[in-house]
Amino acid sequence: MNRILMVCMANICRSPMACSVAQHLARQQGRHRQFEFDAAGTHAPTSAKHMDPRARQALLMRDYQPVKTRSRQVCLQDFERFDLILAMDNANLAVLQRQCPGAMHGKLRLLLSAAPDLGFTEIPDPYYGDAAGFERVLALCESGARGLLAQL
Q: What does UniProt list as catalytic (predicted)?
């Protein structure tokens, strides 16, 4: 089984969206038993927060079921437990690189590294924007998840 952790800052927008999309696409491909997806944040609050309602709405509008509804912070055990740890942007990747034991750095990368034809490397944080920003993030998550599943 491939264990994959999606990581953003607060774990209430991008990473739970990416987790939901990847799980849905794996199920559509009949490969859901090959994968375990989870999401966490580098700066998630210690008291779990619910997914941003705009993120939830964007998922539901495209028939994705939100699978990660409460935030959590990345912990040291995640570096051992997961086979791949995919950051949404370079800032969160840098935090992960500082936290990660040296021997496990090979597990870290950006989600959009699986979709190089996009011409983007980062999924922007939609938190301070409007619904259109969440739609854009969802489209980028779809591209990254499709590329990831094709590579695995």
A: 8 (nucleophile), 14, 125 (proton donor)
